[in-house]
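Batch manifest, entry 17 of 40.
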Amino acid sequence: MKEKHLINLTLLHIGIGFLLAFYPQLSKIYTLLIVLVGFYIVDKNKNKNNEILYVIAYIAGSEVFLRTTNGNPLHEFGKYSMLFFTCLGFYHNGFPKIRNPYWAYLLLLLPTVYLSFMYLDGDFRRKISFEILGPICLGVLALYSYKRKISTIEINIVFTSIALPILASCVYLILRYSHNIYPINSHSSNFYYSGEYAPNQMATALGLGVFVYFIKAITESASMKMYFLNIIFLCLIFYRGLLTFSRGGIVTGLIAVCIVFISMEISKKGYFLKRKIGISLFIITTVFILTAYQTEYHLFERYTNFNIFHTKNNHKPKGRYIQITSDIKNFSENPIVGIGVGKGKEIRKATYSLNVSTHSEITRLLSEHGIFGLFALLILIFVPLQLYFNNLKNVYLLSFFIFWLFTINHSATRIIAPLFMYSLALMKIEFEKEENSVVSK
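Output type: C-alpha coordinates
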Protein backbone atom coordinates (compact mmCIF):
# COMPACT_ATOMS: atom_id res chain seq x y z
CA MET A 1 0.00 0.00 0.00
CA LYS A 2 1.39 3.38 -0.98
CA GLU A 3 2.32 5.76 1.80
CA LYS A 4 -0.08 8.43 0.55
CA HIS A 5 -3.03 6.03 0.56
CA LEU A 6 -2.12 4.78 4.03
CA ILE A 7 -2.00 8.33 5.41
CA ASN A 8 -5.37 9.13 3.83
CA LEU A 9 -6.96 6.01 5.34
CA THR A 10 -5.44 6.86 8.72
CA LEU A 11 -6.88 10.39 8.60
CA LEU A 12 -10.26 8.94 7.59
CA HIS A 13 -10.34 6.69 10.66
CA ILE A 14 -9.21 9.45 12.98
CA GLY A 15 -12.19 11.34 11.56
CA ILE A 16 -14.49 8.34 12.21
CA GLY A 17 -13.37 8.22 15.84
CA PHE A 18 -13.89 11.97 16.14
CA LEU A 19 -17.35 11.82 14.54
CA LEU A 20 -18.63 8.92 16.66
CA ALA A 21 -17.33 10.57 19.83
CA PHE A 22 -19.85 13.37 19.31
CA TYR A 23 -22.50 11.51 17.30
CA PRO A 24 -22.39 7.86 18.49
CA GLN A 25 -25.80 7.20 16.90
CA LEU A 26 -24.00 7.18 13.53
CA SER A 27 -22.31 3.94 14.56
CA LYS A 28 -25.11 1.86 13.01
CA ILE A 29 -24.44 3.51 9.65
CA TYR A 30 -20.74 2.74 10.11
CA THR A 31 -21.61 -0.92 10.74
CA LEU A 32 -23.76 -1.08 7.62
CA LEU A 33 -21.00 0.48 5.54
CA ILE A 34 -18.49 -2.11 6.80
CA VAL A 35 -20.70 -4.94 5.52
CA LEU A 36 -21.67 -3.29 2.23
CA VAL A 37 -18.19 -2.04 1.32
CA GLY A 38 -16.67 -5.35 2.40
CA PHE A 39 -19.09 -7.33 0.24
CA TYR A 40 -18.45 -5.03 -2.72
CA ILE A 41 -14.66 -5.40 -2.44
CA VAL A 42 -14.85 -9.19 -2.23
CA ASP A 43 -17.42 -9.57 -5.00
CA LYS A 44 -15.62 -7.18 -7.34
CA ASN A 45 -12.26 -8.96 -7.01
CA LYS A 46 -13.65 -12.51 -6.58
CA ASN A 47 -11.31 -12.86 -3.61
CA LYS A 48 -8.28 -13.12 -5.89
CA ASN A 49 -6.03 -11.29 -3.40
CA ASN A 50 -7.45 -12.63 -0.13
CA GLU A 51 -9.92 -9.75 0.19
CA ILE A 52 -11.98 -11.94 2.53
CA LEU A 53 -9.18 -11.68 5.08
CA TYR A 54 -9.03 -7.89 4.77
CA VAL A 55 -12.74 -7.60 5.53
CA ILE A 56 -12.70 -10.05 8.45
CA ALA A 57 -9.58 -8.32 9.81
CA TYR A 58 -11.42 -5.01 9.73
CA ILE A 59 -14.44 -6.54 11.49
CA ALA A 60 -12.13 -8.04 14.14
CA GLY A 61 -10.51 -4.66 14.74
CA SER A 62 -13.84 -2.82 14.93
CA GLU A 63 -15.96 -5.32 16.88
CA VAL A 64 -15.41 -3.92 20.38
CA PHE A 65 -15.63 -0.36 19.04
CA LEU A 66 -19.05 -1.15 17.52
CA ARG A 67 -20.24 -2.76 20.75
CA THR A 68 -19.11 0.27 22.74
CA THR A 69 -21.01 2.66 20.47
CA ASN A 70 -24.07 0.37 20.19
CA GLY A 71 -23.53 0.03 16.46
CA ASN A 72 -24.13 -3.72 16.29
CA PRO A 73 -27.59 -4.90 15.18
CA LEU A 74 -26.79 -8.09 17.15
CA HIS A 75 -24.39 -8.58 20.05
CA GLU A 76 -22.61 -11.34 18.11
CA PHE A 77 -22.52 -9.37 14.86
CA GLY A 78 -18.78 -9.97 14.60
CA LYS A 79 -19.12 -13.76 14.67
CA TYR A 80 -22.07 -13.91 12.28
CA SER A 81 -20.40 -11.56 9.80
CA MET A 82 -17.18 -13.60 10.08
CA LEU A 83 -19.14 -16.73 9.17
CA PHE A 84 -20.85 -14.94 6.27
CA PHE A 85 -17.64 -13.67 4.70
CA THR A 86 -15.83 -16.97 5.28
CA CYS A 87 -18.62 -18.81 3.46
CA LEU A 88 -18.31 -16.19 0.72
CA GLY A 89 -14.66 -17.19 0.51
CA PHE A 90 -15.67 -20.83 0.09
CA TYR A 91 -18.02 -19.76 -2.71
CA HIS A 92 -15.22 -18.02 -4.63
CA ASN A 93 -12.38 -20.46 -3.86
CA GLY A 94 -14.11 -23.78 -3.26
CA PHE A 95 -14.55 -25.84 -0.12
CA PRO A 96 -11.50 -27.20 1.72
CA LYS A 97 -10.35 -30.74 1.13
CA ILE A 98 -11.43 -33.56 3.42
CA ARG A 99 -7.82 -33.92 4.65
CA ASN A 100 -8.07 -30.55 6.38
CA PRO A 101 -7.71 -31.33 10.13
CA TYR A 102 -10.29 -28.74 11.10
CA TRP A 103 -13.10 -30.90 9.74
CA ALA A 104 -12.23 -33.28 12.59
CA TYR A 105 -12.17 -30.37 15.04
CA LEU A 106 -15.70 -29.29 14.05
CA LEU A 107 -17.02 -32.86 14.23
CA LEU A 108 -15.64 -33.22 17.77
CA LEU A 109 -17.86 -30.33 18.89
CA LEU A 110 -21.10 -31.98 17.77
CA PRO A 111 -21.73 -34.85 20.26
CA THR A 112 -21.98 -32.59 23.29
CA VAL A 113 -24.18 -30.09 21.46
CA TYR A 114 -26.71 -32.90 20.96
CA LEU A 115 -26.40 -33.81 24.64
CA SER A 116 -27.08 -30.22 25.66
CA PHE A 117 -30.54 -30.19 24.10
CA MET A 118 -31.61 -32.82 26.65
CA TYR A 119 -30.13 -31.35 29.82
CA LEU A 120 -30.12 -27.54 29.56
CA ASP A 121 -32.78 -25.56 31.38
CA GLY A 122 -34.76 -22.67 29.91
CA ASP A 123 -33.71 -21.01 26.65
CA PHE A 124 -31.29 -23.73 25.56
CA ARG A 125 -30.91 -22.36 22.01
CA ARG A 126 -29.51 -19.05 23.29
CA LYS A 127 -27.30 -20.76 25.87
CA ILE A 128 -25.83 -23.17 23.33
CA SER A 129 -25.25 -20.51 20.68
CA PHE A 130 -23.52 -18.22 23.19
CA GLU A 131 -21.01 -20.90 24.17
CA ILE A 132 -20.50 -22.77 20.89
CA LEU A 133 -20.64 -19.97 18.29
CA GLY A 134 -17.04 -18.89 18.98
CA PRO A 135 -15.51 -22.37 18.59
CA ILE A 136 -17.55 -22.95 15.43
CA CYS A 137 -16.37 -19.64 13.95
CA LEU A 138 -12.79 -20.64 14.79
CA GLY A 139 -13.20 -23.99 13.04
CA VAL A 140 -14.83 -22.57 9.91
CA LEU A 141 -12.24 -19.81 9.49
CA ALA A 142 -9.45 -22.31 10.17
CA LEU A 143 -10.83 -24.49 7.35
CA TYR A 144 -10.49 -21.52 5.03
CA SER A 145 -7.04 -20.39 6.22
CA TYR A 146 -5.25 -23.74 6.61
CA LYS A 147 -2.11 -23.65 4.43
CA ARG A 148 -3.55 -20.87 2.27
CA LYS A 149 -0.82 -18.80 0.61
CA ILE A 150 -0.55 -15.10 1.34
CA SER A 151 2.18 -12.65 0.37
CA THR A 152 3.96 -10.22 2.65
CA ILE A 153 2.20 -7.33 0.92
CA GLU A 154 -1.18 -8.95 1.60
CA ILE A 155 -0.39 -9.69 5.25
CA ASN A 156 0.62 -6.04 5.68
CA ILE A 157 -2.80 -5.03 4.33
CA VAL A 158 -4.36 -7.39 6.88
CA PHE A 159 -2.39 -5.65 9.66
CA THR A 160 -3.57 -2.26 8.41
CA SER A 161 -7.17 -3.50 8.25
CA ILE A 162 -6.98 -4.52 11.92
CA ALA A 163 -5.15 -1.40 13.03
CA LEU A 164 -7.29 1.35 11.52
CA PRO A 165 -10.59 0.67 13.38
CA ILE A 166 -8.63 0.16 16.63
CA LEU A 167 -7.07 3.59 16.08
CA ALA A 168 -10.57 5.01 15.51
CA SER A 169 -11.77 3.48 18.78
CA CYS A 170 -8.75 4.96 20.59
CA VAL A 171 -9.59 8.42 19.25
CA TYR A 172 -13.18 7.86 20.38
CA LEU A 173 -12.04 6.97 23.92
CA ILE A 174 -9.69 9.96 24.16
CA LEU A 175 -12.34 12.46 23.08
CA ARG A 176 -15.32 11.02 24.95
CA TYR A 177 -13.84 9.41 28.09
CA SER A 178 -10.98 11.54 29.41
CA HIS A 179 -12.59 13.58 32.21
CA ASN A 180 -10.39 13.72 35.29
CA ILE A 181 -13.37 13.60 37.64
CA TYR A 182 -13.25 9.81 37.45
CA PRO A 183 -10.54 8.10 39.54
CA ILE A 184 -7.81 6.10 37.85
CA ASN A 185 -5.99 5.20 41.05
CA SER A 186 -7.84 1.98 41.84
CA HIS A 187 -6.89 -1.69 41.74
CA SER A 188 -9.79 -2.94 39.63
CA SER A 189 -10.82 -2.69 36.00
CA ASN A 190 -12.04 0.77 35.03
CA PHE A 191 -15.33 0.78 33.09
CA TYR A 192 -15.34 4.51 32.45
CA TYR A 193 -11.95 4.62 30.71
CA SER A 194 -12.98 1.50 28.78
CA GLY A 195 -15.76 3.49 27.11
CA GLU A 196 -18.29 2.31 29.73
CA TYR A 197 -18.01 -1.13 28.23
CA ALA A 198 -16.35 -4.40 29.27
CA PRO A 199 -12.73 -3.52 30.21
CA ASN A 200 -11.57 -7.05 29.43
CA GLN A 201 -12.75 -6.86 25.82
CA MET A 202 -11.61 -3.27 25.33
CA ALA A 203 -8.14 -4.09 26.69
CA THR A 204 -7.95 -7.11 24.37
CA ALA A 205 -8.71 -4.93 21.34
CA LEU A 206 -6.23 -2.25 22.42
CA GLY A 207 -3.59 -4.90 23.21
CA LEU A 208 -4.03 -6.22 19.69
CA GLY A 209 -3.57 -2.66 18.45
CA VAL A 210 -0.27 -2.39 20.35
CA PHE A 211 0.94 -5.61 18.77
CA VAL A 212 -0.12 -4.69 15.22
CA TYR A 213 1.27 -1.15 15.33
CA PHE A 214 4.56 -2.50 16.70
CA ILE A 215 4.82 -4.82 13.68
CA LYS A 216 3.86 -2.00 11.33
CA ALA A 217 6.51 0.23 12.89
CA ILE A 218 9.42 -2.18 12.58
CA THR A 219 8.60 -3.99 9.32
CA GLU A 220 6.27 -1.86 7.25
CA SER A 221 7.56 1.69 7.77
CA ALA A 222 9.40 2.56 4.56
CA SER A 223 10.40 5.96 5.93
CA MET A 224 11.23 7.37 9.36
CA LYS A 225 8.15 9.57 9.04
CA MET A 226 5.88 6.52 8.85
CA TYR A 227 7.88 4.82 11.60
CA PHE A 228 7.36 7.64 14.09
CA LEU A 229 3.72 8.00 13.01
CA ASN A 230 3.14 4.33 13.80
CA ILE A 231 5.00 4.72 17.11
CA ILE A 232 2.78 7.67 18.08
CA PHE A 233 -0.34 5.60 17.41
CA LEU A 234 1.17 2.68 19.33
CA CYS A 235 1.77 4.95 22.35
CA LEU A 236 -1.77 6.36 22.30
CA ILE A 237 -3.32 2.89 22.08
CA PHE A 238 -1.00 1.51 24.77
CA TYR A 239 -1.79 4.44 27.07
CA ARG A 240 -5.55 3.99 26.72
CA GLY A 241 -5.14 0.25 27.20
CA LEU A 242 -3.31 0.83 30.47
CA LEU A 243 -6.12 3.11 31.71
CA THR A 244 -8.62 0.26 31.41
CA PHE A 245 -6.73 -1.37 34.31
CA SER A 246 -7.59 -4.69 32.68
CA ARG A 247 -4.33 -6.58 32.46
CA GLY A 248 -5.01 -9.60 30.28
CA GLY A 249 -5.31 -7.91 26.90
CA ILE A 250 -2.37 -5.54 27.37
CA VAL A 251 -0.03 -8.20 28.76
CA THR A 252 -1.00 -10.52 25.89
CA GLY A 253 -0.20 -7.81 23.34
CA LEU A 254 3.21 -7.18 24.91
CA ILE A 255 4.02 -10.89 25.06
CA ALA A 256 3.10 -11.21 21.37
CA VAL A 257 5.51 -8.31 20.66
CA CYS A 258 8.30 -10.19 22.46
CA ILE A 259 7.50 -13.42 20.63
CA VAL A 260 7.66 -11.83 17.18
CA PHE A 261 11.01 -10.26 18.13
CA ILE A 262 12.38 -13.66 19.22
CA SER A 263 11.00 -15.32 16.07
CA MET A 264 12.76 -12.75 13.91
CA GLU A 265 16.02 -13.53 15.68
CA ILE A 266 15.51 -17.27 15.18
CA SER A 267 14.75 -16.86 11.48
CA LYS A 268 18.00 -14.90 10.93
CA LYS A 269 16.39 -13.06 8.04
CA GLY A 270 16.99 -9.50 9.22
CA TYR A 271 13.50 -8.18 8.65
CA PHE A 272 14.08 -5.25 10.97
CA LEU A 273 16.70 -2.89 12.23
CA LYS A 274 17.54 -3.42 15.90
CA ARG A 275 17.69 0.32 16.31
CA LYS A 276 13.96 0.52 15.65
CA ILE A 277 13.29 -2.33 18.08
CA GLY A 278 15.28 -0.56 20.79
CA ILE A 279 13.54 2.78 20.26
CA SER A 280 10.11 1.12 20.25
CA LEU A 281 10.69 -0.81 23.49
CA PHE A 282 12.13 2.28 25.18
CA ILE A 283 9.06 4.32 24.23
CA ILE A 284 6.67 1.60 25.43
CA THR A 285 8.48 1.46 28.78
CA THR A 286 8.39 5.24 29.10
CA VAL A 287 4.63 5.34 28.43
CA PHE A 288 4.08 2.73 31.14
CA ILE A 289 6.14 4.64 33.70
CA LEU A 290 4.42 7.96 32.92
CA THR A 291 0.98 6.34 33.13
CA ALA A 292 1.91 4.72 36.43
CA TYR A 293 2.89 8.16 37.73
CA GLN A 294 -0.45 9.56 36.57
CA THR A 295 -2.27 6.81 38.49
CA GLU A 296 -0.22 7.45 41.64
CA TYR A 297 1.65 4.18 40.95
CA HIS A 298 -1.48 2.07 41.43
CA LEU A 299 -0.81 0.80 37.90
CA PHE A 300 2.39 -0.85 39.16
CA GLU A 301 0.45 -2.55 41.95
CA ARG A 302 -2.24 -3.67 39.52
CA TYR A 303 0.26 -5.29 37.15
CA THR A 304 2.41 -6.87 39.85
CA ASN A 305 -0.53 -8.51 41.63
CA PHE A 306 -1.53 -11.42 39.41
CA ASN A 307 -2.93 -13.59 42.19
CA ILE A 308 -6.14 -15.05 40.78
CA PHE A 309 -6.74 -17.23 43.82
CA HIS A 310 -7.37 -14.70 46.57
CA THR A 311 -8.20 -11.05 46.91
CA LYS A 312 -5.69 -8.63 48.35
CA ASN A 313 -7.36 -8.23 51.72
CA ASN A 314 -8.76 -11.68 52.44
CA HIS A 315 -8.44 -15.32 51.54
CA LYS A 316 -11.74 -15.90 49.77
CA PRO A 317 -11.43 -17.51 46.33
CA LYS A 318 -11.92 -15.13 43.44
CA GLY A 319 -14.37 -15.58 40.58
CA ARG A 320 -11.94 -16.85 37.95
CA TYR A 321 -10.44 -19.37 40.37
CA ILE A 322 -13.93 -20.73 40.99
CA GLN A 323 -14.55 -20.90 37.24
CA ILE A 324 -11.36 -22.86 36.59
CA THR A 325 -11.74 -25.27 39.49
CA SER A 326 -15.40 -25.94 38.70
CA ASP A 327 -14.52 -26.69 35.06
CA ILE A 328 -11.77 -29.10 36.11
CA LYS A 329 -14.13 -30.79 38.58
CA ASN A 330 -16.81 -31.13 35.89
CA PHE A 331 -14.28 -32.74 33.54
CA SER A 332 -13.05 -35.20 36.19
CA GLU A 333 -16.63 -36.24 36.97
CA ASN A 334 -17.78 -36.39 33.32
CA PRO A 335 -14.65 -37.22 31.28
CA ILE A 336 -16.32 -38.86 28.27
CA VAL A 337 -18.85 -36.41 26.84
CA GLY A 338 -18.58 -33.62 29.42
CA ILE A 339 -21.53 -31.89 31.08
CA GLY A 340 -22.98 -30.31 27.92
CA VAL A 341 -22.61 -26.95 26.21
CA GLY A 342 -23.73 -24.09 28.47
CA LYS A 343 -24.28 -26.37 31.48
CA GLY A 344 -21.17 -25.08 33.29
CA LYS A 345 -22.79 -21.71 33.91
CA GLU A 346 -25.87 -23.38 35.42
CA ILE A 347 -23.72 -25.52 37.71
CA ARG A 348 -21.68 -22.53 38.94
CA LYS A 349 -24.87 -20.60 39.64
CA ALA A 350 -26.36 -23.46 41.65
CA THR A 351 -23.16 -24.38 43.50
CA TYR A 352 -21.33 -21.09 44.00
CA SER A 353 -24.05 -18.48 43.25
CA LEU A 354 -21.76 -17.27 40.45
CA ASN A 355 -23.85 -16.47 37.38
CA VAL A 356 -21.09 -16.08 34.80
CA SER A 357 -19.65 -17.98 31.84
CA THR A 358 -16.07 -19.15 32.12
CA HIS A 359 -13.27 -16.87 30.95
CA SER A 360 -11.08 -19.79 29.85
CA GLU A 361 -11.98 -21.51 26.59
CA ILE A 362 -9.53 -24.32 27.37
CA THR A 363 -11.17 -25.38 30.63
CA ARG A 364 -14.62 -24.84 29.08
CA LEU A 365 -13.82 -27.26 26.25
CA LEU A 366 -12.75 -29.89 28.77
CA SER A 367 -15.68 -29.31 31.12
CA GLU A 368 -18.47 -29.17 28.55
CA HIS A 369 -17.09 -31.51 25.84
CA GLY A 370 -15.10 -34.04 27.85
CA ILE A 371 -12.60 -36.15 25.93
CA PHE A 372 -13.99 -34.78 22.64
CA GLY A 373 -12.99 -31.32 23.85
CA LEU A 374 -9.54 -32.61 24.77
CA PHE A 375 -8.97 -33.98 21.26
CA ALA A 376 -10.31 -30.73 19.74
CA LEU A 377 -7.88 -28.78 21.92
CA LEU A 378 -4.96 -30.97 20.81
CA ILE A 379 -5.79 -30.19 17.17
CA LEU A 380 -5.90 -26.47 17.91
CA ILE A 381 -2.52 -26.54 19.65
CA PHE A 382 -0.42 -28.95 17.63
CA VAL A 383 -1.43 -28.11 14.05
CA PRO A 384 -0.03 -24.52 14.09
CA LEU A 385 3.04 -25.64 16.05
CA GLN A 386 3.76 -28.27 13.43
CA LEU A 387 3.42 -25.64 10.71
CA TYR A 388 5.90 -23.40 12.53
CA PHE A 389 8.58 -26.04 13.00
CA ASN A 390 8.22 -26.98 9.34
CA ASN A 391 8.83 -23.36 8.33
CA LEU A 392 10.83 -21.24 10.77
CA LYS A 393 10.83 -18.39 8.24
CA ASN A 394 7.26 -17.52 9.24
CA VAL A 395 8.25 -14.98 11.89
CA TYR A 396 4.63 -14.09 12.70
CA LEU A 397 3.17 -17.55 13.30
CA LEU A 398 4.19 -18.02 16.94
CA SER A 399 3.07 -14.53 17.93
CA PHE A 400 -0.34 -15.10 16.30
CA PHE A 401 -0.64 -18.43 18.09
CA ILE A 402 0.41 -17.00 21.46
CA PHE A 403 -2.05 -14.11 21.12
CA TRP A 404 -4.86 -16.62 20.55
CA LEU A 405 -3.76 -18.93 23.35
CA PHE A 406 -3.38 -16.22 25.98
CA THR A 407 -6.55 -14.38 24.98
CA ILE A 408 -8.86 -17.39 25.16
CA ASN A 409 -7.52 -18.02 28.68
CA HIS A 410 -8.74 -14.69 30.03
CA SER A 411 -11.56 -13.75 27.62
CA ALA A 412 -12.63 -17.08 26.07
CA THR A 413 -14.12 -16.45 22.61
CA ARG A 414 -16.18 -13.39 23.51
CA ILE A 415 -14.73 -11.47 20.55
CA ILE A 416 -13.43 -12.67 17.19
CA ALA A 417 -9.96 -11.07 17.38
CA PRO A 418 -8.20 -14.15 18.86
CA LEU A 419 -10.05 -16.43 16.44
CA PHE A 420 -8.85 -14.40 13.49
CA MET A 421 -5.27 -14.27 14.79
CA TYR A 422 -5.32 -18.04 15.12
CA SER A 423 -6.43 -18.40 11.51
CA LEU A 424 -3.49 -16.24 10.40
CA ALA A 425 -1.14 -18.68 12.17
CA LEU A 426 -2.28 -21.39 9.73
CA MET A 427 -1.38 -19.51 6.57
CA LYS A 428 1.71 -19.82 4.37
CA ILE A 429 3.25 -16.36 4.25
CA GLU A 430 5.53 -16.03 1.23
CA PHE A 431 8.41 -13.87 2.46
CA GLU A 432 10.92 -14.61 -0.29
CA LYS A 433 9.41 -12.56 -3.10
CA GLU A 434 8.96 -9.44 -0.98
CA GLU A 435 11.95 -9.91 1.29
CA ASN A 436 13.69 -6.78 0.10
CA SER A 437 10.59 -4.66 0.55
CA VAL A 438 10.14 -5.78 4.14
CA VAL A 439 13.61 -4.78 5.29
CA SER A 440 13.40 -1.44 7.06
CA LYS A 441 15.23 1.35 5.38
